Amino acid sequence: MRNLLEFLAKYNHWFVFLILEVVSMVLLFQYNSYQGSAWFSSANAVTGKLYEWDANVETFFSLTKVNQELTQRNAYLEQEVQKLSDSLVSVTKDSSIYHRDQFALLRNYRLIPAKVVANSVDKPGNLMTIDKGSADGIHKDMGVISGTGVVGIVYLVAEHYAIVIPVLNTKSNISCMIQNRGYFGYLRWKGGVSDLAYLEEVPRHAHFKLGDYVVTSGYSAVFPPGVRVGRILHVFNSADGLSYRVQLRLSTDFARLRDVCVIDDAAMKERLEIMRAAQDSIETNGDNNQ
């Protein structure tokens, strides 16, 4: 207390100066309209700028949630556009009613949004890590998509994270078809650039053209039909000359991929379990015959 009193006594003239300055400012701005309006405008500008900065910071930290919602919405819209396009084709008699029945099933799918926390695009065995796991309903062999197309298949699952085998992995093998043509093949990546892949084993009698889109076929127990994969760039003969090898530009930009959705559907899970049971049965019968 004594030190405080000594401090106040030593610098009392400064405190008196500050008090007089405050009193003079109040009198000046209160009883002079011009100075008062100038002060009010300046204060508004400063306050407004502070509010603007605060809003920008709040907006920045909310972008993660916004991106997740947009990714999920884009995925739904992609399927709706695909469904409408197929209906139009069926009306113009350019395709069969087969597609329409498949796309009707898309309403039953639930999409689990996730964020990519680790990713590589320059290795033969590229892997991707997402921030959702078994605690969020993720399990092995679920399909993963983005707002623009196919991403990959869930391979390993922990409680809060999962490993995905993306299309950009030489072991990836996804059943696809040429949109509105009905010809099937298998999507494979042979390494190299991250925006090109190949649809292999397309039959020689297939009729299609450059620029046609390739989508998932729905014949696997992982992806629903009609999810965008890419667009045809070139056509080559296979090594044995018995089929076509179609080069695609992938619709998903894996180098910039941040937000994805995992497809959760009970019917697809049931199909996968039946397929596994059938494979186990075949293998068991084969061993018994030997």
TrEMBL record:
InterPro entries linked to this entry: Cell/Rod_1, Cell/Rod_MreC_2, MreC, MreC_beta-barrel_core
Pfam families per UniProt: MreC
Cellular-component GO terms for this entry: plasma membrane
Keywords in alphabetical order: Cell shape, Membrane, Transmembrane, Transmembrane helix
Gene Ontology terms: biological process: regulation of cell shape
Residue ranges of every copy of the Rod shape-determining protein MreC beta-barrel core domain listed in the record: 116-263
Transmembrane segments: 12-31
Family: Belongs to the MreC family.
PANTHER family: CELL SHAPE-DETERMINING PROTEIN MREC
Protein name per Swiss-Prot or TrEMBL: Cell shape-determining protein MreC
Organism per entry: Segatella copri
Lineage: Bacteria, Pseudomonadati, Bacteroidota, Bacteroidia, Bacteroidales
Chain's gene name: mreC
